[in-house]
Amino acid sequence: MEFATIASHSSAIKKLKEHNPNLIFEDITEDWLDGYFSYLKKKLGNNDNTAYKNMSVIKKYVRMAHKAGYMDENPFENWSIKQTTANCVYLSEQELQLLVSLYSERNLESRLHKTLEFFLFLCFSSLHVGDAKKLQLEQFGEDSFTYFRIKLRNSKPMPIQVPISSPLRMILRNLVGTRKKGSVFENLPADQTMNIQLKTIADFAEIDKQITHKVGRHTFATIFLRRTKDLASLREILGHSTIKETLVYAHVLDESKQEGIKVFNTFEL
């Protein structure tokens, strides 16, 4: 089981224990599922995506308990886990430029500068936090770098090749100096700490958005697609197993359609 999966299961079980520390499998009925889902949303303030992920974890253990004979019925038989799309927060090109300028000016205190540097690396590389943290200098060539997504490690993934842009090359140079091998990133704070620092950085830049590390990858994808309209290439760079995953950024193509149709407004009838 991957670290991220363990963390997800641990979080869901912790919430379950806090809600009912004496819960047994026999207590879990369809009515209980409805009530607990409501608790996640109303009491804990979880959004639909988070709440359904928690229910999905519970479903896995309930299914095993039912199969092992600890439950007479599986309450999830008629209780479906809905597929939801999380809100995709990303930076506009203007907002990204604000952060690039802030980085270049080097006026932030050291810990914030380091966090901003890591975030900008994500914005220009397309990587997830975990994949970026594991990068080694040996994975970088002259014009691109190659990696395997942690999320796909157990499914025999193909290597993903990402072209290196000028800003990414400059950030890499600042990061590693004269080093030729080893980890790209050294002594980074915990993810939660950096996400808190990103809020401070957003305030400095006067960006009114909830910035977390995920925003870096979303920003890359949105700007790339807006500029190129190339959904297939974006899928390859992001390492998505299906085009369906990449279509979360299709809103950019919709914007382009609206802009494109305006060319016909020059014709007068």
From TrEMBL:
Residues 86-262 form the Tyr recombinase domain. GO terms for biological process: DNA integration; DNA recombination. The keyword Heme does not apply. SUPFAM superfamilies: DNA breaking-rejoining enzymes. GO terms for molecular function: DNA binding. Pfam families: Phage_int_SAM_5 (PF13102), Phage_integrase (PF00589). The keyword DNA-binding applies. Keywords: DNA recombination, DNA-binding. Belongs to the 'phage' integrase family. This is Tyrosine recombinase XerD. It comes from termite gut metagenome.
